[in-house]
């Protein structure tokens, strides 16, 4: 029973982190219908930027590292959109060409990072030390803090989408591009900002993930594929769906690891993915099918 | 008849290259070059059947390397553990691939569109390595299968060369006939305008299953020929590099053309050997290549060829008209 409860807790923790990774994917897809196959490397880049500031500066703190990685990735995202995705989207068959482009670009960046930082595993120190004991369950403060950050981030994003002009413009673009144009939304600009925002969120999730797990240039691939399952489970384009799906899959993963074995996590994720696509392709909360 | 005459220089080139490939092992090919040619024959089939799915039927599959691995493993295990002749185990491997792929990807893909198929097929191929390491007794786990028997006892490279060449020719013929049949027309109609095609009476479900079946069967066979010519297979076959190579082949050659993937496979297989000089930078270069092609040359080599062709014919016409305008 104790191990069961602990598994539930660790499932919730990793689930909320997975949800955080999936947010970047679902934001880009929801607004622009481009599916970011370079998602993993963006998260890894964010984590490496934070790690560089942390280890290089000495006196500089975590907050600065995160801030720098957010800003750099925001700029990077808008540039990627402006110079590569935007021209590609004006051509026919843009859906597959953007997928392959982002895939190729992701692998390019992954190997550049490998050249620069080497294959050795890096770790970002935990944000908070110590742990909390609740009966049989023990939670590290850091994990608790991660969950709080993720929840706060999600609330902030929801507020941004609902109550700010920019967020509303993004939502209207997500609903209908011609409609958004009619009411005077500058689609190109919105897409650029969306990419910047999504890249920044993804980079941030990379920082969080690498405090919990570890960091090397290849780990992004695994984060990304997990993100894929989560966004389709939750419904492509739906942020709240991604959060539920992340939590559910985190718990499933913990249960599978506990009772069947860690090696079966991947095949079982695949089976879940297939079953969801067969029964309810629009995901649990209904994004776009 | 007219089209044959029009394209005659291309036909001559194809025949010349074919003859060269036919006599090459006797004209001073060393073992290394034969090895590269075998890789080219197998990869060309993989790239061409991938292109059949992505280019002709417009189904964005990213899992074709997985099909190849399934076919290779199935045939390798049958031949090595059960002692079945490769000539029987390869077709069985192809059928197993075909069944698994239609079951796990083909049927779900009937209801899905666009990006979902890409995701599903990618995750399908991505979950294979962990299954392989789980079933170590049968598949050899992370070490893979070694000393898989060849096509004939005491096989040498030259035998494998000709066997794979024949396989390549047959597979290309099948793909060519598929593209130029009613089925191929139906694929393209569904790709270009699904609603219009279904209105005209194209059975969307049946055609999609068909294209999955053909593509996966051929790729599975290619996997079989791959393991029996090279003698081993391991989960690295499912790694990122073969995946990139496959995509680079049909993208470089020209997606949605018959000749494109073959040309692309040739360039990539032989070019990849030169890239070995670049060492660890190779994967970045491949990624960069894919990015550049998609951004600046979406039609690949075939686009270049047709551009040169139109340029030459324009120049010829100009000359003719100039000649007519100024007699003597």
What's the overall geometry of chain B? Answer: globular
Strand content of chain B: under 5%
Molecular shape of chain A:
globular
Q: Count the DSSP helices of chain B.
A: 15
As a percent range, the share of helical residues of chain B equals over 70%
Give the spatial strand order of the biggest sheet of chain A: 1-2
Count of beta strands of chain B: 0
Estimate the helix proportion of chain A, in percent. over 70%
Helices and strands of chain A, in order, run as HHHHEEHHHHHHH
Given as residue ranges, the uncertain stretches of chain A (5+ residues, pLDDT < 50) are: none
What oligomeric state do these chains adopt?
Answer: heterodimer
Secondary structural class of chain B: mainly alpha
Reported for the largest beta sheet of chain B, the result is: none
How far the N terminus sits from the C terminus of chain B, by CA atoms, comes to 35 Å
Give me the number of helical elements of chain A: 11
Helix and strand succession of chain B? HHHHHHHHHHHHHHH
Nearest-integer average pLDDT of chain B: 86
Secondary structural class of chain A: mainly alpha
Please describe what this structure looks like.
The complex is a heterodimer of chains A (289) and B (328). Chain A is mainly alpha-helical. Chain A has one domain (2-219). Chain A is built from eleven helices and two strands, in the order H-H-H-H-E-E-H-H-H-H-H-H-H. Chain A has a two-stranded antiparallel sheet. In chain A, helix 1 crosses helix 9 (219-234) and helix 6 (165-175) crosses helix 8. The relative contact order of chain A is 0.21. The mean pLDDT of chain A is 85. Chain B has 328 residues and is mainly α. Chain B has a domain at 33-238. Helix content of chain B is 77%, strand content 0%. In chain B, helix 9 (182-192) crosses helix 11 (204-230) and helix 12 packs parallel to helix 14. Chain B is globular and about 80 Å long. The mean pLDDT of chain B is 86. The chains are: A mainly alpha (289), B mainly alpha (328).
